[in-house]
């Protein structure tokens, strides 16, 4: 996070932009995005790093790039990894020139993540390598640079199939920066800000800054740190001089006070910036900006306290892919995901099961969502044949330390997780690795506790893994929360992974069926439990959390559907080679309350009814049951109000009271009795079907507070396009997400339509991807057409760097064409 606040001049170099400034004669140069104009070839290229290699025919592209999302889906690719081509050897190359006047500078290349097994070369020289695709890293490439001449950086990747239990993506899928530093500067991740004492009157801000002297002489270095608030008002300045020996680094600690601090909180993301200016003899040689928040966190056996107030985790676990955009990181797509999660009522994220993109943490900082930052899904015991276990001994310490160094300034991050469902739980000496990793976390950061997600109960307790960490996460064990408290009176714990219910948006089975439907490869959205054997309905967790208020809350599996692990279709056994294609074409998850493209399923509203307080009511299923006239259709309502009345064609089917009138949900496992579970979280009616209107009215204290109406849709006649944002930035990155609906004459969604929709995009933008949330569809995300799935699809539009307008035209057979114009500015 480096940027200049001094009047920047923009210099155009031969192939990169350098923003720089002149103060007191020394030019300070900021970090440069190094994302454009890479060359790509997915092939084994002998000496792909060679300077004189002819790369003129290679494909030109910008990163972040995920080659696997380009497809095609193929059942020769493992469905566990998304059925996409995530493996193989590939090369990226980039030519660039640095002006001769930079010859005294230190040049570094920083990658936020390369998926994976990457090797980096500059001008034919091997510079370094990184196995773990989720780790950010930087190499000093000064010795290999030829100033004033053409340079070539080459990156070789060798990702393997079944290196993860989900879709990892493949490629330089996160951002790249080129850094031109003075020899005296703040190195990568060189600041560490914490707020040890906070009251409403004042906060102590502790800033540790590392200063690097890469010259051959000792240097007297002057550091000036300024704290500014969101309106750029200076809150304090601290100055310090320190001597740093040649070729070495030193850390300097400053304590500053911010009076009347605006605290960072859930949904109230007040942020500050610390601007670190490094000077030598009055000349600025580096300037570094760190965004941070002022807040306190406390974990007690009674709960989690943020700024002294108890907060229950209404959390979501998320994998890192962005649906149709694949793993290639995009700020807006990430922000949209978390905004949708917030709308559902989520206040917490667990970055399962690996370090997230830096963008994800920025988003959580800026939206006010707390984060568990997780390092690993495997230690030394493998879950998949090419998983992290192969690299644990060599890389675990570095990957963990780097994650913490990278992420420690984010106010959103509240815990470090050392692992998920680590198989060492079952081993007598598994605690030793837990202790080693736990100690590393505390060594890097004493301001946050550690955690892990344990699914073996009681083995993880008996084998003392749980005893090693500060806050114990238990996966899928609501039936044991009482027992855990009883046997461990002082333990601080929470549901680190819960529910794993599965369903398909818009798909309903009547009569209700609780079996895995192998004809459709879809799961009924009545959500009365079809899942893997460890899954259970959200209701059961709500109940367990209520009965065990000492649990800090829950993290549902997952917030968004993700690519790969298409449970309940496909294989289930992690210990085999995990060939998951038995139920092909299923290739994406069905777990989440939100589908792969971001459309809420019914379950979204079940969570909303429990996690939010603005009055809401939701009704399901759709009301198009042609041929079933007179037959019974179950109707469900989810609300946070007291009671709901159902009307069919204006006739009341009676009021149901929340907490009193119960709905049957099925349990299969998990310490609960197999059979029927009576849920107080849903209201339901059995209704003889007649077409027309289905309406729910919700009341609190006898007063109407919310209502929703569904109508039987007529014939599909038109397309409607609804953009999440009608104006986007003209920066070549910003996105508009367009919901594409197939509607009848009156504008009702046609809930069964599967019309093929074609898109034409003109003006200052292009079609970045399409999708429809069908986890069993083999349609490409990259064509300019897609079928509607239960009436809906999504078109993702990316603006160019030109200001102007983008016109999207959507056509379909026998449907009136729709056009929409959005602006880029
Ligand atoms: C958990 C696991 C997750 C995911 C989930 C599916 O056991 O930690 O990564 O596989 O099951 O239900």
From TrEMBL:
<keyword id="KW-0326">Glycosidase</keyword>
<dbReference type="Pfam" id="PF18565">
    <property type="entry name" value="Glyco_hydro2_C5"/>
</dbReference>
<dbReference type="InterPro" id="IPR008964">
    <property type="entry name" value="Invasin/intimin_cell_adhesion"/>
</dbReference>
<dbReference type="InterPro" id="IPR017853">
    <property type="entry name" value="GH"/>
</dbReference>
<feature type="domain" description="Glycoside hydrolase family 2 immunoglobulin-like beta-sandwich">
    <location>
        <begin position="195"/>
        <end position="295"/>
    </location>
</feature>
<keyword id="KW-0732">Signal</keyword>
<dbReference type="Pfam" id="PF02837">
    <property type="entry name" value="Glyco_hydro_2_N"/>
</dbReference>
<dbReference type="GO" id="GO:0005975">
    <property type="term" value="P:carbohydrate metabolic process"/>
</dbReference>
<feature type="domain" description="Glycosyl hydrolases family 2 sugar binding">
    <location>
        <begin position="87"/>
        <end position="178"/>
    </location>
</feature>
<feature type="domain" description="Glycoside hydrolase family 2 catalytic">
    <location>
        <begin position="297"/>
        <end position="455"/>
    </location>
</feature>
<dbReference type="InterPro" id="IPR032311">
    <property type="entry name" value="DUF4982"/>
</dbReference>
<feature type="signal peptide">
    <location>
        <begin position="1"/>
        <end position="21"/>
    </location>
</feature>
<dbReference type="InterPro" id="IPR006104">
    <property type="entry name" value="Glyco_hydro_2_N"/>
</dbReference>
<comment type="similarity">
    <text>Belongs to the glycosyl hydrolase 2 family.</text>
</comment>
<dbReference type="InterPro" id="IPR006103">
    <property type="entry name" value="Glyco_hydro_2_cat"/>
</dbReference>
<keyword id="KW-0378">Hydrolase</keyword>
<dbReference type="Pfam" id="PF16355">
    <property type="entry name" value="DUF4982"/>
</dbReference>
<dbReference type="InterPro" id="IPR013783">
    <property type="entry name" value="Ig-like_fold"/>
</dbReference>
<dbReference type="GO" id="GO:0004553">
    <property type="term" value="F:hydrolase activity, hydrolyzing O-glycosyl compounds"/>
</dbReference>
<protein>
    <submittedName>
        <fullName>Beta-galactosidase</fullName>
    </submittedName>
</protein>
<dbReference type="Pfam" id="PF02836">
    <property type="entry name" value="Glyco_hydro_2_C"/>
</dbReference>
<dbReference type="InterPro" id="IPR051913">
    <property type="entry name" value="GH2_Domain-Containing"/>
</dbReference>
<feature type="domain" description="DUF4982">
    <location>
        <begin position="630"/>
        <end position="706"/>
    </location>
</feature>
<feature type="domain" description="Glycoside hydrolase family 2">
    <location>
        <begin position="719"/>
        <end position="821"/>
    </location>
</feature>
<dbReference type="Pfam" id="PF00703">
    <property type="entry name" value="Glyco_hydro_2"/>
</dbReference>
<dbReference type="InterPro" id="IPR036156">
    <property type="entry name" value="Beta-gal/glucu_dom_sf"/>
</dbReference>
<dbReference type="InterPro" id="IPR006101">
    <property type="entry name" value="Glyco_hydro_2"/>
</dbReference>
<dbReference type="InterPro" id="IPR006102">
    <property type="entry name" value="Ig-like_GH2"/>
</dbReference>
<dbReference type="InterPro" id="IPR040605">
    <property type="entry name" value="Glyco_hydro2_dom5"/>
</dbReference>
<dbReference type="InterPro" id="IPR048229">
    <property type="entry name" value="GalB-like"/>
</dbReference>
<dbReference type="InterPro" id="IPR008979">
    <property type="entry name" value="Galactose-bd-like_sf"/>
</dbReference>
<dbReference type="InterPro" id="IPR023232">
    <property type="entry name" value="Glyco_hydro_2_AS"/>
</dbReference>
């Amino acid at each position: 996070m480096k940027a200049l606040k001094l009047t920047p001049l923009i210099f155009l170099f031969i192939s990169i932009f350098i923003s720089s400034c002149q103060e007191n004669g020394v030019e300070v140069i900021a970090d440069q995005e190094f994302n454009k104009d890479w060359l790509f070839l997915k092939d084994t290229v002998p000496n792909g790093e060679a300077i004189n290699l002819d790369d003129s025919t290679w494909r030109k592209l910008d990163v972040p790039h995920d080659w696997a999302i380009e497809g095609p889906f193929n059942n020769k690719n493992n469905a566990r990894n998304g059925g996409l081509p995530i493996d193989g050897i590939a090369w990226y190359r980039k030519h660039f020139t640095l002006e001769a006047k930079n010859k005294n500078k230190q040049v570094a290349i920083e990658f936020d993540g390369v998926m994976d097994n990457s090797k980096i070369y500059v001008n034919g020289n091997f510079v370094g390598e990184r196995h773990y695709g989720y780790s950010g890293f930087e190499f000093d490439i000064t010795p290999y640079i030829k100033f004033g001449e053409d340079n070539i950086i080459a990156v070789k990747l060798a990702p393997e199939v079944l290196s993860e239990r989900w879709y990892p993506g493949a490629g330089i899928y996160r951002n790249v920066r080129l850094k031109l530093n003075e020899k005296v500067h703040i190195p990568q991740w060189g600041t560490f800000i914490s707020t040890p004492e906070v009251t409403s009157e004042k906060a102590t801000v502790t800033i540790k800054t590392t200063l690097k002297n890469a010259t051959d002489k000792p240097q007297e270095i002057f550091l000036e740190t300024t704290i500014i608030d969101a309106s750029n008002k200076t809150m304090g300045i601290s100055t310090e001089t320190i001597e740093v020996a040649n070729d070495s680094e030193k850390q300097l600690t400053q304590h500053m006070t911010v009076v009347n601090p605006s605290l960072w909180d859930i949904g109230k993301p007040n942020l500050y910036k610390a601007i670190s200016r490094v000077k030598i003899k009055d000349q600025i040689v580096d300037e570094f900006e760190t965004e941070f928040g002022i807040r306190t966190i406390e974990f007690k056996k009674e709960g989690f306290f943020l700024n002294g107030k108890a907060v229950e985790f209404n959390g979501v676990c998320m994998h890192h892919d962005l649906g149709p955009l694949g793993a290639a990181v995009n700020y807006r797509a990430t922000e949209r995901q978390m905004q949708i999660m917030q709308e559902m009522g989520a206040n917490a994220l667990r970055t399962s099961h690996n370090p997230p993109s830096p963008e994800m943490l920025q988003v959580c900082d800026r939206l006010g969502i707390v984060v568990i930052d997780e390092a690993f899904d495997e230690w030394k015991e493998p879950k998949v044949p090419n998983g992290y276990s192969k690299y644990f001994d060599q890389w675990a310490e570095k990957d963990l330390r780097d994650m913490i160094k990278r992420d420690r300034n984010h106010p959103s991050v509240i815990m470090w997780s050392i692992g998920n469902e680590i198989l060492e739980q079952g081993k007598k000496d598994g605690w030793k690795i837990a202790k080693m990793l736990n100690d590393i976390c505390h060594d890097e950061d004493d301001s946050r506790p550690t955690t892990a997600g344990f699914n073996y109960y009681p083995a993880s307790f008996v084998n003392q893994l749980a005893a090693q960490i500060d806050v114990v996460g238990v996966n899928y064990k609501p039936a044991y929360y009482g027992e855990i408290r009883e046997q461990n009176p002082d333990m601080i714990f929470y549901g680190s992974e819960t529910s794993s219910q599965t369903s398909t948006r818009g798909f309903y089975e009547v009569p209700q069926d609780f079996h895995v439907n192998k004809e459709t490869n879809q799961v009924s959205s009545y959500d009365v439990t079809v899942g893997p054997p460890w899954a259970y309905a959200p209701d059961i967790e709500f109940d367990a959390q209520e009965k065990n208020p000492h649990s800090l809350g829950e993290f549902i599996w997952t917030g968004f559907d993700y690519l790969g692990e298409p449970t309940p279709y496909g294989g289930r056994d992690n210990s085999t080679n995990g060939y998951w294609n038995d139920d092909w074409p299923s290739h994406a998850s069905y777990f989440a309350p939100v589908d792969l493209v971001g459309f809420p399923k019914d379950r979204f509203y079940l969570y909303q009814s429990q996690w939010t307080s603005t009055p809401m009511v939701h009704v399901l299923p759709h009301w198009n049951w042609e041929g079933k006239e007179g037959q019974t259709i179950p109707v469900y309502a989810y609300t946070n109000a007291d009671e709901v009345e159902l009307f069919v064609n204006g006739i009341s089917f009676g009021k149901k009271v929340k907490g009193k009138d119960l709905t049957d949900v099925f349990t299969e496992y998990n310490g609960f009795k197999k059979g029927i579970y009576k849920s107080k979280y849903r209201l339901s009616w059995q209704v003889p079907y007649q077409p027309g209107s289905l309406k729910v009215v919700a009341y609190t204290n006898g007063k109407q507070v919310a209502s929703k109406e569904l109508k039987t849709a007529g014939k599909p006649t038109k397309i409607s396009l609804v953009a999440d944002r009608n104006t986007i930035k003209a920066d070549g990155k910003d996105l508009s997400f367009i919901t594409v609906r197939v509607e009848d004459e009156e504008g009702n969604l046609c809930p069964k339509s599967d019309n093929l929709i074609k898109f034409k995009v003109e003006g200052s933008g292009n079609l970045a991807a399409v999708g429809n949330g069908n986890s069993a569809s083999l349609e490409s995300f990259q064509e300019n057409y897609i079928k509607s799935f239960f009436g809906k699809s999504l078109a993702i539009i990316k603006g160019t760097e030109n200001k102007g307008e983008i016109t999207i035209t959507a056509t379909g057979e026998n449907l009136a064409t729709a056009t929409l114009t959005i602006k880029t500015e």
